[in-house]
Specification:
Protein name: GTP 3',8-cyclase
Shape: globular
Order of helices and strands: EHEHEHEHHEHEHEEEEEEHHH
Bound molecules: S-adenosylmethionine
Radius of gyration: 19 Å
Catalytic activity: GTP + AH2 + S-adenosyl-L-methionine = (8S)-3',8-cyclo-7,8-dihydroguanosine 5'-triphosphate + 5'-deoxyadenosine + L-methionine + A + H(+)
Binding site for [4Fe-4S] cluster 2: 256, 259, 273
Cofactor: [4Fe-4S] cluster
Enzyme class: lyase
Length: 329
């Protein structure tokens, strides 16, 4: 088991398949992009599947989420998903994506064994999308969402980050868009994980503010709080349900005490927290010929050292040197 010194057990593995992305969301990276990892440093598909297999077969991982960067940019994605879904005990397999290209791939991914998707969509306005993501791809994302739903990758979840003065007036329209289509919307507080280090607490639209924006127009009632378990989103029934909306207050309502996540970066580093400042290099060991037992031991040691909390509110907090796109969101 992947147990830390506070007794939390990691069962949810987030795997970044690439640090590259075809959008440039302002809260994530600068318009000119970043220096991407050289291909030789990326784990190969076989290396990814080997590490995921160790996680599932030896270490109690029950959920595998592929992310990035943008995971749809990884050519072997369908193959990686198929090999993950074939593991026993079968893990839940999901994908976090910006949706660009999903219109073409959703069917193949569902057939390969993908269970669910989270698609990021912060605005319903094409001009705002261009301003926010520096690319004119709004229609592609909407087409990706529709294809995911048709392929049965349900519940289709939508992730939205609100930014003050840019899209914070869209909280209710985004909710209505999702309710009309049967998607489950989750708002995520903006976190200090941008490559530019431009995050400013005062600019962040907080969970309380998001709830107030929604409650001005819909009735919200807390749902499943006792069942929340390790889920990051606080969920609310909308107008009596059954439709729901989630709010992930990563900064103002941290859920570290129930965290069950562990991350594998595209270059083979284990991170026990999004905000960790240390990583544990499985790729070097793997490429030096380590056996499964040794890799598992290294992974166990990496999780054991997980801190109690991300410490964003601590005056000594330091943003991790790697941005979200390189860690895997
Ligand atoms: N490219 C994929 C996507 O867009 O979903 C996967 C990677 S992206 C880093 C994963 C999620 O992280 C997205 O929903 C994105 O909005 C969110 N994200 C990125 N930077 C963030 C930040 N600084 N604060 C909060 N969420 C962020």
């Amino acid at each position: 088991m992947l147990k830390d010194s506070f007794g939390r057990v990691a069962t949810d593995l987030r795997v970044s398949l690439t640090d590259k992305c075809n959008l440039r969301c302002t809260y994530c990276m600068p318009p000119e992009g970043l220096d991407w990892l050289p291909n030789a440093q990326l784990l190969t598909a076989d290396e990814i599947v080997r590490l995921v297999t160790i996680g599932v077969e030896r270490l109690g991982i029950t959920e595998v989420r592929y992310t990035g960067g943008e995971p749809l940019l990884r050519r072997e994605l369908v193959d990686i998903v198929a090999r993950t879904a074939a593991l026993r005990p079968k893990p839940q397999v999901s994908l976090t994506t910006n949706g660009i290209g999903l219109a073409k791939l959703a069917g193949a991914l569902a057939e390969a064994g993908l269970d669910r998707v989270n698609v990021s969509l912060d605005t319903l306005d094409r001009e705002t999308f261009k301003r926010l993501a520096h690319r004119d791809r709004f229609e592609d994302v909407v087409a990706g969402l529709e294809a995911a739903d048709r392929a049965g990758l349900r519940p289709v979840k939508v992730n939205a980050v609100l930014m003050r003065g840019i899209n914070d007036h869209e909280a209710v329209p985004l909710l209505r868009f999702c309710l009309e289509r049967g998607y489950e919307l989750r708002f995520i507080e903006q976190m200090p994980l941008d490559a530019q280090h431009g995050w400013n607490r005062a600019d962040m639209v907080t969970a309380d503010e998001i709830l107030a924006l929604l409650q001005a127009e819909v009735d919200l009632c807390a749902d499943d709080l006792e069942e929340r378990g390790s889920a990051p989103a606080e969920r609310f029934l909308v107008d009596g349900g059954p439709a729901r909306v989630g709010v992930i207050g990563s900064v103002t309502r941290p859920f570290c005490g129930a965290c069950d996540r562990v991350r594998l970066t595209a270059d083979g580093q284990i991170r026990n927290c999004l905000f960790a400042r240390e990583e544990s290099d499985l790729k070097a060991a793997l490429r030096a010929g380590a056996g499964d037992e040794e890799l598992a031991e290294r992974w166990i040691a990496a999780v054991r050292g997980k801190r109690a909390g991300h410490g964003i509110d601590d005056p000594s907090f330091l943003q991790p040197s790697r941005p979200m796109s390189a860690i895997g969101g």
